[in-house]
UniProtKB/TrEMBL annotation, chains A, B:
Species per Swiss-Prot/TrEMBL record: Haloechinothrix salitolerans
Signal sequence region: none
Phylogenetic placement of the source organism: Bacteria, Bacillati, Actinomycetota, Actinomycetes, Pseudonocardiales
Domain of life: Bacteria
InterPro entries: Homeodomain-like_sf (IPR009057), HTH-type_TetR-like_transc_reg (IPR050109), HTH_TetR (IPR001647)
Any single Pfam family the record assigns to this protein: TetR_N
Name listed for the protein in its UniProt record: TetR/AcrR family transcriptional regulator
Keywords per UniProt: DNA-binding
Domain HTH tetR-type: 4-64
Ranges of the DNA-binding region feature: 27-46
Length: 221, 221
DNA sequence: CGGTTGTCTGATACTCAGTATCGTATAGGT
DNA sequence: ACCTATACGATACTGAGTATCAGACAACCG
């Protein structure tokens, strides 16, 4: 295990100081001093003081994009849900860092705004992907936007519950939330028109769920 | 005709200069000089340089709250839609100011983030109101959040179309968008238990898609 | 009318985030 | 051993935002 990178040292120093003195009362000089690097290095590593709070944002955004890119027409909705799940899992993987960030964003409105804005970057990626998936026509633009907003909202809902310590099974809750969310956009009655079937993570045997499937589809012929 | 207030002069000076030189290349000193007031007065009138871009935000937020407050259990959903309409009408009433703001938010990411954050303040008010309307129980929290997100998303969709000059009848489009949005929540979503299956618009015969279905599921047994 | 009080304003000095640009050390390749 | 990339430190600068002082001006009150 090589020595920790400058970036990691800065992140740890920043979060430690933010917890001790609060975000506003911690200067960049304080952070760099504790991390043992120069001030210039901080701004080479992070674009701004706020950025150190969300160090992996760009990486997560890239992960989302590549997850979506590797999907077919048939698996598009699954891809969106799993991309959202990727974000959730990243936060959970951060552990204490994510919890500390949550405390900070609750305390300083500017940071909360920043987090909201980054969340909506995910939403934008989802929206564009879903819209393309729908064919990119103008008459589906609103629907695509609503779907993207719903997916992100459901994700945020579960994430917030986990951050607050209100759940020990965030993944299961995520699946449930995502299922009921995607359900909003289902059209159970119509078996006409172009469309596709999306299967959303079942552990049950296929035959066990077929009756329900036929029921929803309208049991053709 | 009374003379325009300091606040109005600052707003006009700011938008004029932002259009001329761009947001970043305009300093607060430039604005105050053009408005004929001191720098201190600017920061007494607006909390920050960004705030001058959204001068009526607090007023709109207050208007939303009072519109929601004056609603009964029966008219709750109508109240939410009309509160959202209030926001739309405010933007339209601003006219050129709203268009100028849109141009600025497109060119400067920090301003766009700021606008997004303020939009989500509306969403939060809606969410809390809807959740209370639903009874405030935990099992409706996600649904309330999804509804609030959907209403705001639909509003933003129509607003953006108007800002881009893509519609001459924003109110009619708003009504249509809001109708289809509320429609999403008309029927409670039907899931088939844990690890649920979501069916999404198919025109194909069930047997035709079964191979793909089994493939996604991992073809048990 | 004179005095008081509260509010609005200008002026000044300060902190700190963020940018720009310099010089330097060091790892890696030839 | 020489060259070149990149990474880092140091310094100076711009500009946002804060704090504080002092003066102008109205309203109110005795």
């Amino acid at each position: 295990m090589p020595e920790r990178t400058v970036k990691d040292r800065l992140i740890e120093a920043a979060f430690t100081l933010f917890e001790e003195r609060g975000y506003e009362r911690t200067t960049v000089d304080d952070i760099t001093e504790r991390a043992g690097v120069s001030r210039a290095t901080f701004f080479r590593t992070f674009r701004s003081k706020e950025d150190v709070i969300f160090p992996d944002h760009d990486a997560v955004l890239t992960a989302i994009r590549s997850r979506l890119a590797g999907s077919t027409q048939q698996t598009a909705l699954v891809a969106v849900c799993e991309a959202a799940r990727l974000v959730l899992l990243h936060y959970i993987g951060e552990g204490e860092l994510a919890l500390s960030r949550y405390r900070l964003t609750r305390t300083f409105p500017a940071l909360r705004d920043r987090e909201i804005a980054s969340t909506l970057q995910y939403q934008r990626v989802f929206r564009e992907f879903i819209h393309d998936w729908m064919g990119g026509e103008e008459d589906t633009a609103l629907r695509a936007e609503l779907m993207a907003a719903a997916v992100v909202t459901a994700h945020n809902y579960v994430l917030r519950r986990w951050l607050r310590g209100q759940t020990d099974a965030p993944e299961a809750e995520f699946d449930a939330a995502m299922a009921s969310t995607v359900d909003l956009f289902a059209e159970p009655g119509s078996t006409t028109g172009p469309g596709s079937i999306v299967v959303f993570r079942t552990s049950q045997d296929l035959d066990a769920v077929l009756p329900a499937l036929r029921g929803i589809l309208g049991d053709p012929a």
